[in-house]
Write a structure and sequence with these properties.
This protein is of the alpha/beta class and about 210 residues long. It contains five helices and nine strands, in the order H-H-H-E-E-E-E-E-E-E-H-E-H-E.
Length: about 210
Amino acid sequence: MVPVVAFSDYIEKHASKFIDRLAQAVAIPSVSSDATRRPDVLTMGTWLNNQLQSLGVTTKLADVGKHVVDGQELPLPPIILGRIGDDPSKKTVLVYGHYDVQPAEKSDGWDTDPFQLVVDEATGRMFGRGASDDKGPILGWLNVLEAHKALGLELPVNMRFCFEGMEESNSEGLDDLIHSEVAKGEHGWFAGVDCVCIVRPAVPATLRSSC
């Protein structure tokens, strides 16, 4: 069986598992702008870090300090740096995404609990905060890694990851981290990166309230 067919078959056969993984992520209310939800953002970061490590990704939780919200000093969520593959003959792709979300309440107009993934059986559409921005796209990459690992397929590129927990709140801490890593030259986390892929889908305006 050629690799592309084996890969597609794996994705189809494990779709329910991938949906369950997304449901777990959506259930964590990682609202970065809400001080009372900061523990949930940290929980989400830990959950995502564990998922990456289970798939063979070497990770680093970068401490980017603290900030003040409504007079309260809070730890900024760690930025997750990851790497898998170091083949000098391959290109290196850096994937950027974020694991925090905007606030969401049923009173905002949601038909369902925004932090419970709902799958429309008729259309296959999935509704839940973060399902498309940006937890779903991040987990799409994890699903790809899982399929390659399970099938014994070699990744065609080296991969680096940068997942932050403050994108919905001005990405506090990200700029300083990037500058510090770049300043390390060949010893920095982004050394050798050939291109960057931003995992943020274009969502039709009619669906944005369900993201």
